[in-house]
Amino acid sequence: MTVRTLVVDDSPTMRAMVAHSLSQDAEIEVVGTADGPHSAREMIKSLNPDVITLDIEMPGMNGLDFLEKIMRLRPMPVVMLSTLTGRGAEATIRALELGAFDCYEKPKQAFGGGLGEGLTRLVKAAAKSRVRPRVTPVAPRVPADYVPRADAMIAIGSSTGGVETLIELLGGFPANCPPTVIVQHMPESYVPTFAARLDRLSAPTVSVARTGAPLEPGHIYVAPGGSHHCEITGGTLRRCRLVADEKMSGHRPSVDRLFLSVARWAGASAVGAILTGMGADGARGLKTMKDAGAMTIGQDEDSCVVYGMPAAAYQMGAVTAQLPLSRIAARLLAECRA
């Protein structure tokens, strides 16, 4: 399948660079280039592209505003490009929350360096993704007398599509939720902004995990990424631990690395969930959790942006129950109830 792609950027130089870079791949056809939202709207109607690459900053209407309109009126795969994605974490997280497939950083200089193969891989992956119309999530009803077991904890892994998925999922968590540790594949510089965003939108306290932080009810810990994996350690008093080590399953932090530590230190008292994402990170660790007696959940194909990580886990026999996103929070909480 040839991926028909529309390039939207106000800079003629950048439009040409993106179009040239994508055209080097035989599986991608650049069907048009637009200098802003107005011309892009007409091209979307006439050309019906499979994927759009979209600049975050444009005169008149910025890329985030245009992205919001696209995802509301004509949901389709969008890869955001901007120099802001390296330093403007807030804009990047907002784009992902609005439903962008992923964000890719432009070269800091218009000439020299190019865009690399990463953009072509993203565009092709975006073409295969599922785009869900944006809806206002309805948080599941949590019993007023909900109390988690003293030994219960939740471990979650996600990647592509995980930002909007985690926002929806954690919206169903009560303020006294079981201690929850999350690995979301994301550049290190974005994590504090993402954790702060989750903290504002969720009832529990959400923070970036740090070595020695005790796992407490009502707290959610997001792996910081970069040069460290995030694990848990300890018996009755569990804590977060950051470990500087080589990548595992192609990632650092690795979902596998978190899940393996949970299997070791929490065993049957833990619940694991693997959500939308490319690749297979987390499948082996989730299987180890299941073998240790933990209940394990995989997001189903229809509700995933990318049914990669959950599919790998399911095929490995690591998933106890496969559920749509709308039912996962309630099931996680029920499994941890006292």
What do you see in this structure?
The chain is α/β, with parallel strands linked by helices. The chain folds into two domains: 3-127, Response regulator (Rossmann fold), CATH 3.40.50.2300; 153-335, 3-Layer(aba) Sandwich (Rossmann fold). Helix content is 35%, strand content 21%. The protein has helices at 12-23, 37-47, 63-73, 84-87, 89-98, 116-127, 162-170, 191-201, 255-265, 283-291, 309-315, 325-335; strands spanning 3-8, 28-34, 51-55, 78-82, 102-105, 153-158, 180-184, 205-208, 219-222, 228-233, 239-244, 270-274, 295-299, 321-323. Strands 8-9-7-6-12-13-14 form a seven-stranded parallel sheet, with helices on both faces. β12 (270-274), α10 and β13 form a beta-alpha-beta unit. α9 (255-265) runs parallel beside α10 (283-291) and α10 packs across α11. It is elongated and about 60 Å long. It starts with a strand and ends with a helix. The mean pLDDT is 92.
Question: Would you kindly provide a brief summary of this structure?
Answer:
Helix content is 35%, strand content 21%. With 338 residues, it is an alpha/beta fold. It folds into two domains: 3-127, 3-Layer(aba) Sandwich (Rossmann fold), CATH 3.40.50.2300; 153-335, Methylesterase CheB, C-terminal domain (Rossmann fold, 3-Layer(aba) Sandwich), CATH 3.40.50.180.
